[in-house]
């Protein structure tokens, strides 16, 4: 009896859904931020080709997510979703096959409601049928949105229940067809704390509403993420939304991120281990955009096969710890990785600033040790540090550092403990306090 009870408890616990898919953050392209509904297969395949040409697929961006607006407004007589023949004149299968030839797996989009946010058929009540259609078309990854929710007397469910219907359909299909389950990206905009339960149903969950290509939108997402950063792990992660890197002066209204803001954006998304889905024009991508997206030192940490968690704040900096401030989120972050201890320092001010932290503020640092400092943007070792690091950062700029042990720190350094409280001589006399 006890063991049965325990099994039930484990099954309903918060552990991630380890069904073999989505262990690491998804890297790829998503059509939404750049195109919304305005695309054709041909236009999208040009993007896919540009990704190959720029070496992005090789760098790990291997997923191509077809977001909203790919179908006709109504289902066919058998209730099936039909691809829009104007957008996909050669059919959806041809589209996914073309992607596959370029080394890209295909992802698609639907809704836990009557319609998609763009007004196309949604999958509520059609979960198994639509999944079959998506699989038949050649997709293996599904983003699941939250528009056009049926009345309560219809669903008799919460957000969780509406998403569980699709998650269950995925598990049932995988079992029946003995195939790999679809990867499921939940997109309920952080309404009902999906970071608590999302890992039971899928591999990622959006933590808020839609991103926009300006700094206030990014800092607000970083602020939200700072409070739940530790919910990210293998097979289950906070999704900070599609990237806006490259959308400066593009889109309606056009984005206005500076180079430093775009770097901070990418650094935070990658080191917090969010999915990284590009959504800007890869055909005309600038060297700066490509430099950011192809930062192999940072991508390596995003894709660390041995450490699933991302960075989390150890000090808010400008504000007292745990202050909710969408304009000035947490500034000092740390985490572990297979390659060393990671630090991210973010200047949330509009002016340049000197920023300093003690190494032992990070849980992952050993006291009394020297550390080699590798700069993940300069791509080189910038020095050896002990006790603290001081940096000069531009407005909304970022530093991303990797620290590796370089032996004991010099003898006789005072104070004898970098942490002030409870520091004691062997005889029980306090050095501090
Ligand atoms: C919602 C989602 C976006 C995008 C659009 C498509 O707004 O949050 O990411 O998928 O729907 O209509």
Automatic annotation (TrEMBL):
One of its GO terms (biological process) is carbohydrate metabolic process. Residues 328-403 form the Alpha galactosidase C-terminal domain. The keyword Signal applies. Its EC number is 3.2.1.22. It catalyses: Hydrolysis of terminal, non-reducing alpha-D-galactose residues in alpha-D-galactosides, including galactose oligosaccharides, galactomannans and galactolipids. InterPro entries: Aldolase_TIM (IPR013785), GH (IPR017853), Glyco_hydro_27 (IPR002241), Glyco_hydro_b (IPR013780), Melibiase_C (IPR041233). Residues 1-16 form the signal peptide. Transmembrane segments: none annotated. It is an enzyme of class 3 (hydrolase). It comes from the Eukaryota. Keywords: Disulfide bond, Glycosidase, Hydrolase, Signal. GO terms for molecular function: alpha-galactosidase activity. Pfam families: Melibiase_2, Melibiase_C. Gene3D superfamilies: Aldolase class I, Golgi alpha-mannosidase II. Belongs to the glycosyl hydrolase 27 family. This is Alpha-galactosidase.
